[in-house]
Design goal:
The complex is a heterodimer of chains A (about 70) and B (about 425). Chain A has about 70 residues and is of the alpha+beta class. Chain A is about 40% helix and about 10% strand. Chain A contains one helix and three strands. Chain A has a two-stranded antiparallel sheet with strand order 1-2. The relative contact order of chain B is 0.14. Chain B has 14 helices and 14 strands. The two termini of chain B are about 20 Å apart. Chain B has a ten-stranded mixed sheet. In chain B, strands 3-2-1-14 form a four-stranded antiparallel sheet. In chain B, helix 4 runs parallel beside helix 5 (about 145-160), helix 9 (about 250-260) runs parallel beside helix 10 and helix 10 (about 290-305) packs parallel to helix 14. Chain B has helices spanning about 30-40, 45-50, 60-75, 110-125, 145-160, 175-185, 200-205, 215-225, 250-260, 290-305, 375-380, 390-395, 400-405, 415-425; strands at about 5-10, 15-20, 25-30, 80-85, 130-135, 165-170, 190-195, 235-245, 270-275, 310, 330, 335-340, 355, 430-434. Chain B is about 35% helix and about 15% strand. Chain B is α/β, with parallel strands linked by helices and about 425 residues long. Classes of the chains: A alpha+beta (about 70), B alpha/beta (about 425). The interface between A and B is large, with 30 and 74 residues. Strand 3 (about 50) of chain A pairs antiparallel with strand 3 (about 25-30) of chain B, so a sheet runs across the interface. Chain B: Its cofactor is [4Fe-4S] cluster. Chain B: Keywords: Iron, Iron-sulfur, Metal-binding, S-adenosyl-L-methionine. Chain B: InterPro entries: 4Fe4S-binding_SPASM_dom, Aldolase_TIM, rSAM, rSAM_sf, Sulphatase_maturase_rSAM.
């Protein structure tokens, strides 16, 4: 439990030691997460890649004649 | 392969399109990455690029991997292909055609032997699907034969519990609503490919009926009506245009005529193909190679302007380049002779390259080895330019026969892939920058 005494200046702040340790752990975790997020941001700034498809491609699957060299079987 | 132009991504980034030919997938990447891919330079953490296959280890032999995958695909096919010519005659007299046409009677014995061969393939347990492609000559000159054989083929497939798919390559002049319904319903044809060589007057001059009459308006009228026919709502059409000096510049009026006839439709796909040598001299009509790539782009742009459907880039790697490279495929001529390649049966100088007669081959065995069954070994040995070519995975070498004849059949994709990528990004809705 955290208890801030606001009744008068100079009053002691009562914080259990386990809570201080927990807060330190939370801070460390946050730091790790921030570091990872920064890494992702840096990476995305470095390599952006997204797969796309042709908008009008509602074509029959049998239609593959995109590298046609002329043969009717191609 | 990297596109030439930059585009604005909705995230605000400026990007360029990239094709991974090994997977046929297209990506947008940032400009720095595009430059690095062009230069072949890898640095830092490129895990995503490596995962997509855009980056590979320096000592990785991609060509060997692609060729081996093709070899395995040709050997292990679960689909049995029969290219069947129900007629050796054609009612058209196209100037650039390399076939010779003659009236041949498809005998009762020949039909029975072919039907038995197909039935044995269906029953053998080796295949999931029978795939039949009706070819010619003009296959509709043998319409009754086609229907009769289809009835036997489909019955065999049904009895064996395997799939059945059929396509027809036709000049289209003999099509009408009644025949289309029978072809779709009874012969289970799901795809009709016709060739239209340009606006009406050019098509009719380039592909005249032997009677001298034209066919352009009749063909597009029949297709337009078929697209409105609920009985034919499972039927797809492909419109091929043979590009030559006679029509290379006529993409715009051609596309306009097709769109006006209602062919800007999800069930109609268009593509341009260069006038093709079947071993004959087409130098008078062929577009010079240097100009072909640009001419093809003009056709794609015209398709796009008029709402016609077309495919700019391959949707998948091309493992088995053609029927001639797998013994699970065979071509059966109207005279019953069996070939491996569609350009042998009716082509002078190749007609005697048959592998036997359908009536004398063992019905439950694959066709005998053909001239191009070693195609993947040929590629692997570097006997063509394909092994070092970036588009090998989506091209497959295009035409083994033309390579053997000393006429490299490299498709125009090799020359205009960067332009195609830019148009691809444009049609996908991205805005060009600069």
């Amino acid at each position: 439990m955290i208890c801030f005494s606001s009744g008068f200046r100079g009053a002691p702040m009562l914080i259990d030691s386990w809570l201080l340790q927990h807060a330190a752990e939370l801070a460390e975790q946050a730091g790790t997460q921030l570091s990872a997020a920064a890494g992702v941001l840096h990476h995305e700034a470095h390599v952006f890649m997204e797969e796309i498809t042709q908008a009008t491609t509602t074509l029959h699957s049998a239609f593959t004649e995109t590298v046609n060299a002329g043969c009717a079987e191609n | 392969m990297v596109g030439r132009n930059a585009f604005r991504h909705p995230s605000g980034r400026v990007v360029r399109p990239v094709l991974n030919t090994a997977t046929a997938k297209v990506y947008l990447v940032d400009l720095a990455t595009a430059q690095r891919l062009e230069a072949g330079v890898a640095e830092g953490d490129d895990a995503r690029l490596a995962q997509s296959g855009l980056l590979v280890e320096v000592d990785h032999d991609e060509a060997a991997e692609v060729i081996e995958a093709s070899r395995v695909a040709a050997r292990d096919r679960r689909t049995r292909d029969f290219v069947v010519m129900p007629s050796a005659y054609c009612n058209m007299g196209c100037g650039y055609c390399g076939q010779t046409h003659e009236r041949v009677t498809v005998s009762r014995d020949h039909r029975a032997a072919l039907a038995e061969r197909v039935a044995r393939a269906a029953r053998g347990g080796r295949y999931d699907t029978l795939n039949v492609r009706w070819f010619g000559g003009e296959p509709l000159m043998g319409y009754a034969v086609l229907l009769d054989l289809s009835r036997r083929f489909t019955a065999a497939a049904d009895e064996a519990g395997v799939g059945y798919a059929a396509k027809i390559v036709t000049n289209g002049s003999l099509l009408d609503a009644r025949k289309l319904r029978a072809l779709h319903r009874d012969a289970r044809i799901s795809s009709v490919e016709v060739t239209l060589d340009g606006p009406a007057e050019v098509h009719d001059a380039s592909r005249p009926l032997k009677s001298g009459a034209g066919s352009f308006h009749k063909i597009i009228g029949v297709i337009g009506a078929a697209l409105r026919d609920p009985e034919l709502d499972g039927l797809h059409f492909t419109v091929r245009t043979n590009i030559g000096v006679h029509n290379a510049a006529l993409a715009e009026p051609f596309a306009a005529e097709l769109a006006a006839a209602g062919l800007a439709h999800d069930r109609v796909a268009c593509y341009p193909a260069p006038v093709h040598s079947w071993g004959n001299d087409v130098s008078d009509v062929a577009v010079p190679r240097a100009d072909l790539a640009a001419a093809e782009m003009a056709w794609f742009l015209a398709y796009q302007r008029h709402g016609l459907r077309f495919r700019l880039l391959p949707a998948a790697p091309r493992r088995v380049v053609c029927a001639a490279t797998s013994r699970h495929s065979e071509v059966v001529g109207a005279d019953g002779r069996v070939y491996s390649c569609t350009e042998q049966s009716l082509v002078p100088g190749h007609r005697d390259e048959d592998l036997g007669h359908v009536g004398s081959l063992a019905a439950d065995e694959l066709r005998p080895p053909g001239a191009f069954d070693d195609w993947y070994d040929t590629l692997d040995a570097g006997a063509t330019a394909c092994r070092g070519c970036a588009i090998l995975p989506v091209c497959g070498g295009a035409c083994p026969k033309l390579w053997r004849e000393g006429k490299p059949p490299c498709p125009s994709l090799r020359d205009n892939v960067r332009d195609r990528l830019d148009l691809y990004a444009l049609t996908a809705g991205y805005t060009p920058v600069g």
